[in-house]
Design goal:
This protein has one domain. The chain has four helices and five strands; from the N terminus they run βααααββββ. The protein has helices at about 10-25, 30-45, 50-65, 70-80; strands at about 5-10, 85, 95, 100-105, 105-110. The strands form two sheets. The protein has a three-stranded mixed sheet with strand order 2-4-3, with helices on one face. A hairpin with a 4-residue loop joins strand 3 and strand 4 (about 100-105). Helix 2 runs parallel beside helix 4 (about 70-80) and helix 3 (about 50-65) runs antiparallel to helix 4. The longest helix is centred in the first third of the chain and has 19 residues, at about 30-45. The chain is elongated, with a radius of gyration of 15 Å.
Length: about 120
């Protein structure tokens, strides 16, 4: 089996539940909460000073977070021209994602309690 990136399927649901909860408490608050989470994530990735990190963030946001618009848009705008591996620790190239200019060299799977 090839190395992979796992994502707990409930992490996405927990984030959405938190947004929905705050939105019920006060209209607009849920979206503000999500904006804070997105801004924090973009800041942390930006601190890495790497276009490759933005490529990975954008690709994974599209695949695992239902294409979270702000993350995908910002990551796409900050990607660099070179082609990088999704997982730099794996020497094989995998298939090319021209949109994100990176090699998908690992499998991506969602995990849950019954996986």
């Amino acid at each position: 089996m090839s190395p992979g990136i796992s994502f707990h399927r409930f992490a996405r649901l927990e984030l959405r539940d938190a947004v929905d909860f705050y939105e019920e408490e006060d209209p607009g608050l849920g979206r503000a909460f999500l904006a804070i989470v997105e801004a924090g994530l973009l800041t942390r990735v930006g601190e890495a000073g790497s276009g490759a990190a933005f490529k990975r963030l954008g690709f994974l946001s599209e695949r695992l977070l239902d294409g979270e618009e702000v993350l995908v848009k910002e990551a796409f705008a900050r990607r660099t021209t070179g082609v990088v591996r999704l997982n730099p620790g794996v020497p094989t190239r995998g298939r090319l994602s021209a949109r994100w200019r990176r090699w998908v060299n690992v499998t991506i799977q969602e995990e849950g309690p019954n996986s």
